[in-house]
Amino acid sequence: MTEITIDIREDLLNTIQSISRDNIITPTVPIAIYLQEAENLAVWASDDLDQLSKVGISSAHIEDLKERIEACRIFQTEWIKLKNIKPTEQKLWEESRKLAIELRGELIFTYKYAFKDDKTALKEVKKIKKQNKTANLVATLHNLYRIGNKYPELLEKISFDFNQLKDLSQLAYKLKNQRSEFVAITPAKEKFKHLRNQSYTYLKHLIDEIKDAGKYVFAKNKERLQGYHSRYYK
Questions:
Q1: 86: pLDDT confidence band, cut at 50, 70 and 90?
Q2: Of 76, 88, 81, 93, which Cα lies nearest the Cα of 30?
Q3: Rounded Cα distance, 12 and 201, in Å
Q4: Averaged confidence pLDDT in the chain
Q5: Given this model, what pLDDT does residue 85 score?
Q6: pTM of the model
Q7: Fewer beta carbons within 10 Å, N or C terminal of the chain?
Q8: H-type helices in the chain, by residue range?
């Protein structure tokens, strides 16, 4: 897996990443709620350590629990951030793409008129294909920019605004960069979702261990037992 730069201890990150896809547990509780319940459990179990220690639960388990909670929260935050960014990046790219298609059509129409008496120049314009894939569209914009600068005297005769060529070049680079950013977000988002699910699984293993211990120790103490059940399911 691609190396992750994030504020988590390296050994903890390695442990989380070592959880295979087959062993990942899919969250059945909203993560925000699950993390809050996990924090509540850490506080609750801390008060019961004297009794829980009889079945092997110590303060080390509580500290480990807090660390796993924080790791899961970090990955959840990063995933949500990328999840929310993607639609925005996609919208900006689609707006630029629409503008590029319109500008391409306008310039081809203008060039054909300006070059109507020059067979060589007109031949170059007629070779342009109206393909709408981003890579083809960007290449076409650059080609239109090149052609416009190659035959300036023909464009001057029809009072062509050469600022359009400058706008064309800028739009081509903008479109390419926006597409790259949009495409780059998807694997990053999936990566953090996978890490979130791995960290959730790692957290759940410890939560289940502490809860099982609490349910056993306080089986006859309803007041303390309630802290080892999920309020979400109730």
A1: low
A2: 76
A3: 13
A4: 89
A5: 67
A6: 0.61
A7: C
A8: 10-17, 31-46, 49-52, 59-114, 119-126, 134-150, 152-156, 163-217, 222-225
